Hints:
Blueprint: H1 6-29, E1 38-44, E2 48-55, H2 85-95, E3 98-105, E4 108-116
Antiparallel strand pairs: 1-2, 2-4, 3-4
Helix pairs in contact: 1-2
Amino acid sequence: MLESDKEQISRVFLNLIKNSIESINQKAQNNNNFSKKIAIELTEDDSHIEVTLEDNGVGFGELKNNIKDILNPYFTTKKNGTGLGLSIVNKIINDHNGKIDFMPIQNGAKINITFLK
Ligand SMILES: Nc1ncnc2c1ncn2[C@@H]1O[C@H](COP(=O)(O)OP(=O)(O)O)[C@@H](O)[C@H]1O
Ligand SMILES: [Mg+2]
């Protein structure tokens, strides 16, 4: 169990899953037989709760060298993006004693969130 603001935490996952959906849809545009995947894993021990989200979308590409930039307000690589999603996500996670990390993977993106219980 995590003591949290339920509405805010839902907002976090809504924003992250929305990003994954947009990323896999973008990849699917130029790949006919592409099979879209989003995996969400929850683990915990005595002191931490960990959530890992993985998608097989376009990935972070060139961004991976300055990955923390994506947390900045108004940072977006999308035509109609606002760049606000992840800055809100980051603020909420910090308010809940947590941290977020972005990991480039072979085919897509991996995001890890750790909360201190
Ligand atoms: N799952 C993901 N896969 C690839 N890139 C991502 C993913 N999530 C976020 N990003 C990158 O981070 C940027 C900022 O995301 P966000 O703050 O949600 O704003 P927006 O979605 O409006 O662009 C995105 O434009 C994209 O470049
Ligand atoms: Mg977004």
